[in-house]
Design brief:
Chain lengths: 290, 244
């Protein structure tokens, strides 16, 4: 699949934003005043910024508002709605903490729950696609949630709890890669099932339908950087999980630690998310002999 | 609403005969011609006269080669591919804006371009590559089963079939109602063992493909080597020529 930068940034940063907001909603940490102001600025900034960046990959942006209408059937629609509900639920909670020195505990807990549901709906946009075997697994939502909670925990300064989530994240990520590799690019589908010609025998593409590019090839039969996949997996795992966990365990906690910790984690997260798209294969590639 | 109808009155679609298709791409061209000037925005082309032309098409013809597992000659199969108007169309349910829908009256899957935001998720959900996002208009294009022809009373009756069907010089494309067991297409499917593409995807396609019939096994009545030793006049000629 084509790793569009807008979608990579959207899923990565909205995940971190909602993760941070969830921690704040739980009252971990319970902050007020200026500290709260900057924390919420960061949380809302990443969540809203991610959502806005997702609009950049739309072909017909003027209809984006209609995406809130199909919650009955569409995960993408549900995601948009949940994002707005979460941001609205946490708004009075944040307002109370920043300006009134008050913590509206139940509202915060509800907002935290909604934040996680939002991340879940994001992950389901990909998980639901039978056409992309690597995504079509329960591990996808688990991964998205762990990235959100783990990364959000780093932002929230809950480093020891975050470290625990990051360790689980590392394990699940490795499992997801192994499972994806075992499935093969196109899972149970082959050119023989795609064309029904398997009843005759082994089938191959003799002539493609067109000599040039098309939308399908650019979007779904995209192959790039697979030769560096192993290196990138190592980068993702070391930066997102290994180094942050080691730093948390060995170095004294404090604001000085937070910046390199978060920078490393984001680097690893972006590598992992890039691979999430770049390594995923769509079954339509079969019709093109790929 | 992008929920799917539980059932449709008719199931209009195509039966494509893989034994008859000669791979001439006339259906591709006529599809593009009709659909670029009728329902919805035009099917744009980019770099049309340049080195790397590309554009939106709703129908494309692939060519495959199948090697019979029991030995014998390989078979070349021309394979037209367009939207299969699936009963359980995953492209419809993923649509966030309500632009994609399946019609209750005839089962045709359409995109309302006034609602489409061009997110491309429906194209991701389709296993068959039946949907292409138009590069200029930014909205999703797909086969409409020529919904603007088949009911069009301004056209002569023989033209009230999809453009691809109307133009096929080989008669490889058949249009009809799969919900009616006595329709031409239902009979063809029953007779020829029509198949679904990628049944493992659970999309329940309406369009069916009529698989190629098994080819004749090559005869072993090959020429034998008896003529190697000429007789009579030819033997004399052979000797005479060798003597020169």
């Amino acid at each position: 699949m084509h790793p569009a930068p807008s979608v990579i940034f959207f899923t990565a940063f909205s995940g971190l934003g909602f993760g941070l907001l969830a921690w704040l909603g739980l009252g971990l940490p319970t902050v007020t005043g200026w500290t709260a102001f900057f924390m919420y600025l960061l949380g809302y900034g990443m969540a809203v910024g991610g959502l806005v960046s997702s609009v950049f990959h739309l072909g017909n942006k003027k209809n984006a508002v209609k995406a809130f209408s199909q919650w009955r059937s569409s995960w993408l629609s549900r995601e948009g709605i949940m994002a707005v509900i979460t941001l609205l639920t946490l708004a009075p909670y944040a307002f109370g903490q920043v300006f009134l020195d008050t913590t509206l505990r139940p509202l915060g807990l509800l907002g935290a729950l909604f934040a996680m549901v939002t991340v879940f709906t994001t992950s389901m946009i990909y998980t639901q696609l039978k056409t992309v075997p690597r995504w079509n697994t329960p591990l996808t939502p688990i991964l998205f949630l762990l990235f959100s909670i783990g990364g959000g925990g780093l932002f929230a300064g809950q480093v020891h709890a975050a470290a625990a989530f990051l360790v689980v994240l590392g394990v699940v990520q490795v499992l997801a890669w192994m499972q994806g590799d075992a499935k093969g690019a196109t899972g149970d589908s082959t050119l023989e099932t795609a064309t029904g010609l398997g009843r005759i025998g082994k089938t191959r593409l003799l002539e493609p339908p067109h000599s040039g590019q098309n939308y399908l090839l650019k979007e779904m039969a995209y192959t790039v950087g697979r030769k560096h996949a192993v290196k990138l997996r190592a980068v993702a795992l070391i930066c997102a999980v290994l180094l942050p966990v080691i730093m948390i365990l060995l170095l004294p906690n404090g604001h000085a630690l937070a910046v390199p910790l978060i920078a490393l984690h984001i680097l690893g997260l972006l590598a992992a998310r890039w691979l999430f798209f770049a390594e995923a294969a769509h079954v339509v590639r079969l019709y093109y002999g790929k | 609403m992008t929920t799917l109808p539980t059932s449709t009155e008719k199931k209009l679609g195509l039966a494509i005969d893989l034994d008859t298709c000669v791979g001439c791409h006339a259906c591709v061209v006529n599809c593009k011609e009709w659909n670029t000037s009728n329902y919805g925005v035009p099917l744009s082309d980019e770099d049309a006269y340049g080195a790397e032309p590309h554009g939106s098409f709703l129908n494309r013809v692939h060519t495959f080669e199948a090697q019979p597992s029991g030995g014998g000659c390989s078979q070349t199969i021309h394979f037209p591919k367009s939207c299969l108007h699936c009963d359980d169309a995953p492209c419809v349910t993923v649509c966030p804006t309500g632009a994609s829908y399946k019609r209750t009256e005839d089962g045709i899957v359409l995109v309302n371009e006034n609602d489409c935001m061009g997110c491309g998720l429906c194209a991701w959900a389709c296993p068959y590559g039946a949907r292409e996002l138009d590069a200029l208009a930014g909205v999703m294009k797909k086969c409409t089963l020529c919904v603007d022809r088949i009911y069009n009373e301004n056209l002569p009756e023989e033209d009230r079939v999809p453009a691809c069907v109307r133009t096929c010089p080989a008669g490889a494309r058949h249009f009809g109602d799969f919900a009616d067991p006595n329709s031409n297409v239902s009979k063809l499917v029953a007779e020829r063992g029509g198949i679904d593409l990628m049944p493992e995807m659970g999309t329940a396609p309406v369009n069916k493909y009529l698989p190629p019939r098994p080819k004749d096994v090559p005869s072993d009545a090959a020429l034998n080597g008896e003529n190697k030793e000429p007789k009579g006049f030819l033997a004399w000629l052979d000797k005479a020529l060798e003597a020169i």
